[in-house]
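ok so heres the complex, two chains, lmk if somethin looks off
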Amino acid sequence: MPAVKQTVDHVESLERYQHGFITTVDQEFAPKGLSADTVRFISAKKQEPEWMLEWRLAAYERWLAMDEPDWAKVSFPKIDYQDSYYYAAPKEKIGPMSLDEVDPEILATYAKLGIPLREQEVLAGVQGAPKYAVDAVFDSVSVVTTFKKELAAVGVIFCSFSEAVREHPELVRKYLGTVVPASDNYFACLNSAVFSDGSFVYVPPGVRCPMELSTYFRINAAESGQFERTLIIADEGAYVSYLEGCTAPMRDENQLHAAVVELVTLDDAEIKYSTVQNWYPGDPETGKGGIYNFVTKRADCRGDRSKVSWTQVETGSAITWKYPSCVLRGKDSVGEFYSIAITNGRQQADTGTKMIHLGEGTRSRIISKGISAGKSSNTYRGLVSAHPKAKGARNFTQCDSLLIGKTCAAHTVPYIEARNGQSVFEHEATTTRLSDDQLFYVMQRGLSQEEAVQLLVNGFVKDVLQELPMEFAVEAQKLVAISLEGSVG
Amino acid sequence: MTLSLALEARDLSQLPSRRDEDWRWTDLRGLIRELPAPSPEVTAEISPGPFGDEGEAELLVVNGRVRGDAGLLTLAEGEARVVRLRFVSATAATGHGVKLAVSLAPGAQLTLLESYEGLAPDYLADAALGVRLETGARLERIVLAGDHAEGVSVSTASVSLAPGADFAQTVLTDGARRQRLETRVEHPGQSAAVRMDGAYLVADRRHADLTTAVNHAGTDGTTDQLVKGVVADQGRGVFQGRITVSPGADRTDARMGHHALLLSDRAEVNAKPELLIFADDVACAHGNTVGALDEDALFYAQQRGIPEAEARAMLTEAFIGEVIDRIVHEGAREVARAWAAHRRVG
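and the predicted structre for the whole thing:
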């Protein structure tokens, strides 16, 4: 089994957090703190049209009237929203640029992270290896987007969000905020006011996007937050697979990452959205530092027979608080959610999904695998609901939790709301620890305890890893191993 | 935030609302616009309850007032008895609450045949039971909630167990205008055993809420839970079950199952089966299904010449029967079976 071999091979080379370095680059910031002026500053920096600024300011006004939610099973000191920078960008000109104009330090950063920004590097890979286009977001701005020309040839628009606002305002205005309204929740509202960059994808009718699209988010600046916004539209009969990765330096302070992702699928369209989240999780001993990952992700399956599949591997962040959801509006639309959430050290995760069945014959599937180790806490929270009109709705949910060690916690909090007599919902959940028998068996074959744990954990999460695109599956597997380092013995 | 606080303080703002996480599906504040007058004392004879003359003694509570000897619920070491405990709401448009203690000394055994009887509409009734079981004590609690369709009723049992105690309950209800039957168990582990079953058969516009919370505080405890529901018309069934395994409560074995049938297009089932686990050497699982009657089984029965309506009734009865079969007290089991058959819904 290659998956197992890969893990074992990497055990030797493990480091606690490999992406914790800081890039020294000249940056400019918005004045510290949050006010209407900060919002205007960001909008001006992005050279946005008036309507965009108004939209942001309206969101900011609403945000002021909202209270920070406290229902998740996570605890953290109160966030001082005035003690952070809401905009940080490398000192370069804004907008699309060629790679030669990008600060070499930033290029070196991405090289170190293993993200190919030079198209020829991707091409120089193994013959027949799949291509994938990258939008690289560094703090508050997108530094480069690759393969744009090749994608444009088939009509696919893939660019940074700021560019989309300038170049394709009709599409942005039509869809922005229609899946996650500005006032949806506290963090989405904050994002709507101060979002800086992110990716925009539009796949025209009948087009199957010829390559994987991906965005790589990097927080670099200190005392700053990242508020990106992603909008993906798959028009009728279109297909796109989108990958998202993220890392941050190791810092003693907590940094806020409050993103919003909106997906729209029209008739017969499909979006596959995969995330490998590896923000800095904070110091495993003291719990100091790390990213607060408070993200709103939602897909609106508007079209009949449309499909959205979320796959996430959550290994990083001090606190994760996110529920990638599907609103299954179109007849016979399908939503899927595959998740691996791993917490170690003092990490806290409250994550899951919402499957909201509104249309007839809608189907959804949820597979969630939670692994807790160290002194961490890992909660699956999910909602499955069927509207009276969602005749023939079906859901299958399976959430399994694995506990490694005596000081961690694993919770399962599903909500099931059935409002018609023709829907069928099934849910099952188990909580176990690694079986002594299995460990003994594997160790008897000559593996160390740590290797044995990784082998068994890989088996535990296999169902979800299979759903990831190949490049990500390999990365995810390594991550699983790294995240659990030092969790036994 | 409880109904009992609201009744005592005569303060509507003490009522739980949808914003309280534990009451999100059973909203009282949105329903009750004003508190009714306190219920009067009733001295009239009350006819026999659903358990008839099963058991040896009866404790009657009418409009929140205890008639008879509340000492029936206190059992000395080694004592054993079967008691009918009847909560009767007899007066329309009034409100009342009552608190009772059940106490079992080491080795005592009590079978509690508990009933809720609504004789008039529009009442607000609150009942709180405090239950304590010492080592080796055993309580089987069988609850038949027969509230009035227009009544609002909340019953809360807080159970605390000593090591080696055995607590088993089966709660059966057909709902009310709004009704909640809640059980909270402090489980010490150490060979104490808990079984917490329930069934709701809800039709018309009735609402039934079965809520349970078990906290495993020590090692080697077991909890076994099976709850089933059948909802027809515009009925609404709610199940909230929480199993917590505290740090150090190793070798806990906790299993929870909730299965519901929806028999109409406007019926509603809301469920929240929760596991909160703070210890690693545990075996915990829950399963939850919501769906319609099995069309294949229905077809099979009809093929054998059983009319559709009867086939449906048979299948729902068999579905609920699994819960009733687990009742240990034979007389109560038969009463429960008859009750379920009589309340066929759909």
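quick notes: The first strand of chain B starts at residue 37 and ends at 38. thats all i got rn
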